[in-house]
Amino acid sequence: MTDEISLKEKRYNRLITVISIAIPLVVAVLFRYKIPNAKPLSFLPPIYAGINGLTSILLILAFIAIKNGRQLIHRRLMTTNIVLSALFLIMYVAYHMTSETTVFGGEGPIKFVYYFILMTHIVLSISVIPLVLITYSKVYLDDFESHRQWAKYTFPIWLYVAVTGVLVYVMISPYYQY
To answer: Membrane-spanning regions, if any (predicted)?
Structure first.
């Protein structure tokens, strides 16, 4: 039985590694590509910011659910968060493939605050991909102890990424060209 789990875990780990490398690379490539003559999808930023906000709320609800022993609700909420994150990513890339990059127009200390939040958001959004996938995979391996250990790190990072996604949007939204 242990060999079967080990083989299954190795497969998951390979897939997680491929996905964790592929997503940032594909996003970086697509981020630089502009679809010729495409109408800007300027309606998307508030939608994907809303998705980040909803993800934040659902992450907290999932945390509360598991603390109260509600495993099924926790699992459904976490699966929903993964789906929302995928939708966010699709919309984010679509927006940037059809629109020019918006430059933050704030001056003084707020500019440094904005760029600090933005940079930590970007770095942690890349690092949260394997963390989420590893944490999620532990459930399918019936390794709930490892799942709990990984979740101690994954949850606060994912929550930070979701919350700062909203903050970045709120801070840059006055500078969008519609």
So the answer is: 12-35, 47-66, 78-97, 112-136, 157-176
